[in-house]
Amino acid sequence: MRNYFKEYDCVIAKRDISSRVLKGARGCIMIVYDEMNFEVEFFVDNPLGNVADVLTVTMDDIELI
Questions:
Q1: Which end of the chain has less Cβ packing within 10 Å, N or C?
Q2: Are 15 and 59 in contact (CB under 8 A)?
Q3: How far apart (Å, rounded) are the C-alpha atoms in residues 34 and 65?
Q4: CA atoms of 39 and 37, how far apart (whole Å)
């Protein structure tokens, strides 16, 4: 399998991942663990761009923006 995601890619959540990270939330890949698992920092959609959550997700949870 080829990994299309790399560190610092901008992504969007494809589904509700947590109570604070809902479908459509934007984030940035901070760590690539392997071809399927990533640490992503998701942001709140407001002018300050505060961090909503930092979560370990799979490639099925996110897509490139």
A1: N
A2: no
A3: 20
A4: 7
How far from 32 is each of 25, 29, 37, 49, CA to CA, in Å?
A: 19, 7, 6, 23
Band of pLDDT at residue 49, cut at 50, 70 and 90: low
**Rounded Cα distance, 59 and 33, in Å:** 11
pTM score: 0.87
Whole-number Å distance between alpha carbons of 60 and 25? 14
Alpha carbons 41 and 43: distance in angstroms, whole number: 7
What pLDDT sits at residue 2? 58
CA–CA dist 55, 57 (Å, integer): 6
What is the predicted pLDDT for the residue at 44? 79
Instruction: Give bridge partners of residue 56 from the DSSP assignment.
Output: 39
Structure tokens at 62: 């996110």
